[in-house]
């Protein structure tokens, strides 16, 4: 398992890191999407509130107007009867009639579409021919013997919420018009208006910069007007592009979205009222313009992106630190598994794997490997006399001397107790081995000083040659061990296995 982790540790580290980045990036995308959805939900709520307010206002007006229509028809029929009794309208006392009609304004419009008599003095002599579309409508009403009533709406001149009805005289000489100020008739109606709804929505939602309302009054080519509840009540002179969007929303009956820049988005939402014949009641239909300020959303997204980058940097730093520690722990575990804990020399496991590699190299090059089995003489007596602590120090000193005096390409390991294995590779003859072995023997000529004690130690070395003496690691160790015991018995410093075999 350790070997698998060792071989693939960098792949594992990269995979885990990429997996973490992917998971975090997926979470980041979800947060971004959540922010966008939240803003979109707010927009939907705002637009739904506006449309619902239009509907609510229209329903309130319709219910109120049903009763008002009946009353206006009743008064119009009374005026028609009075005209039959007195066709000369100059003899009419309009002020007295107004008192009977509970606050209604009375208008008498002649065939020239001019207001020739009225209780509302500012409209006296008003010429409707100046408003072509409305003039055509009045002509049609003058020639038909029927009562007609308009929906409530803002007066173009005063901004008052007015309602008008029309009844032609039986001889079609005059059009009898009634008008009433809705706010005076029903004071609570003043609380039901779209401007207050717009102000409330603007204060409740930071992303709403402004809400305006427009109507297409149909009196000229560019007929869009902004609705105000103060002068000017119907504001003209709109920007050409804005008027184009308003009219497109009105005539297409679809919401138009316009992105002015990265932060400002305009939505033009139509609310169209239809007459019984299916035609649009243009006078009672509106276009709502909502200006959204996306700067808060953009700032939130920017903060989220910045946070994501910072988090990725932190994750990378932490992960690199973790990877470094993990690699260090793996190397440490690997070192412990392959090295002697006392001398820090390679152990038997390391020796076996290294020897297998050196054999492959030797076979490829056609060279030889000398296996030196070194055992310290009388090491037990050192332990018994000086103690194991001193014996351990002695082993470390021997290991240090061997390491310092061998070639870099040679290999030394401690396989247990006082036994060491030395591999000499790339040798050509026994003479090469003898030179190295004699240098090793010379290392033991100098006593080792430990805790004030000078300890002399010698070693016996058995030598096996690959591939001359054996081709397997175990066989080479066995014959080198046999040669080492032969050297001990013969009191020789070293012995070649070939000399025993020969």
Fill in the keyword field for this structure.
single chain, about 500 residues, alpha+beta, Beta-Lactamase, 3 domains, 6-stranded antiparallel β-sheet
Topology, pairings included?
Elements: H1 2-85, H2 94-100, E1 105-109, E2 115-118, H3 132-143, E3 148-149, E4 153-154, E5 161-168, E6 175-181, H4 182-185, H5 194-204, E7 208-216, E8 224-227, E9 234-235, H6 240-252, E10 256-259, E11 264-271, E12 286-293, H7 295-338, H8 348-365, E13 368-376, H9 379-386, H10 388-405, E14 411-416, E15 419-427, H11 430-443, E16 448-450, E17 453-455, E18 459-466, H12 473-489, E19 494-496, H13 497-501
Parallel strand pairs: 18-19
Antiparallel strand pairs: 1-2, 1-6, 3-5, 4-5, 5-6, 7-8, 7-12, 8-9, 10-11, 11-12, 13-15, 13-18, 14-15, 16-17
Helix pairs in contact: 1-5, 1-7, 9-10
């Amino acid at each position: 398992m350790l070997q698998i982790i060792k071989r693939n540790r960098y792949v594992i580290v990269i995979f885990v890191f990429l997996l973490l980045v992917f998971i975090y990036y997926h979470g980041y995308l979800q947060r971004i999407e959540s922010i966008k959805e939240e803003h979109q939900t707010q927009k939907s709520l705002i637009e739904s509130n506006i449309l619902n307010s239009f509907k609510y206002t229209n329903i309130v007006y319709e219910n109120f107007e049903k009763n008002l229509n009946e009353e206006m028809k009743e008064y119009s029929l009374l005026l028609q009867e009075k005209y039959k009794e007195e066709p000369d309208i100059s003899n009419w006392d309009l002020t007295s009639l107004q008192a009977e009609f509970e606050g209604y304004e009375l208008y008498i419009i002649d065939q020239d579409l001019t207001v020739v008599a009225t209780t509302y003095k500012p409209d006296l002599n008003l010429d409707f021919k100046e408003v072509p579309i409305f003039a055509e409508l009045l002509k049609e009403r003058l020639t038909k013997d029927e009562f007609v009533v308009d929906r409530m709406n803002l007066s173009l001149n005063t901004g008052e919420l007015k309602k008008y009805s029309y009844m032609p005289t039986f001889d079609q000489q005059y059009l009898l018009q009634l008008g009433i100020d809705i706010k005076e008739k029903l004071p609570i109606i003043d609380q039901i208006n779209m401007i207050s709804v717009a102000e409330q929505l603007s204060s409740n939602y930071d992303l709403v910069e402004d809400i305006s309302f427009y109507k297409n009054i149909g009196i000229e080519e560019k007929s869009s007007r902004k609705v105000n509840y103060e002068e000017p009540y119907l504001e003209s002179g709109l920007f050409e592009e804005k008027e184009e969007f308003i009219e497109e929303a009105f005539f297409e009956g679809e919401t138009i979205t316009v992105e002015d820049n990265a932060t400002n988005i305009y939505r033009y939402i139509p609310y169209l009222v239809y007459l019984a014949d299916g035609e649009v009641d243009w006078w009672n239909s509106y276009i709502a313009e909502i200006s959204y300020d996306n700067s808060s959303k953009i700032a939130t997204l920017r903060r989220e992106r910045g946070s994501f980058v910072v988090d990725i940097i932190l994750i990378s730093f932490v992960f690199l630190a973790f990877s470094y520690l993990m690699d260090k722990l793996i190397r440490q575990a690997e070192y412990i598994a392959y090295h002697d804990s006392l001398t820090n020399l390679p152990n038997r496991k390391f020796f076996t794997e290294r020897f297998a590699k050196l054999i492959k190299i030797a076979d490829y090059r056609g060279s030889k490997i000398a296996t030196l089995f070194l055992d310290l003489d009388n090491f037990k007596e050192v332990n018994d006399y000086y103690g194991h602590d001193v014996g351990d120090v002695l082993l470390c000193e021997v290991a240090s001397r061997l390491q310092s005096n061998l070639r870099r390409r040679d290999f030394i390991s401690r396989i247990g107790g006082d036994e060491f294995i030395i591999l000499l590779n790339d040798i050509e003859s026994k003479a090469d081995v003898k030179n190295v072995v004699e240098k090793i023997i010379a290392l033991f000529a100098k006593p080792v000083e430990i805790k004030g004690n000078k300890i002399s130690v010698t070693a016996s070395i058995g030598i096996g040659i690959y591939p001359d003496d054996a081709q397997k690691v175990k066989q080479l160790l066995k014959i080198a061990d046999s040669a080492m015991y032969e050297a001990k018995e013969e009191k020789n410093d070293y012995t070649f296995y070939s000399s025993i075999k020969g």
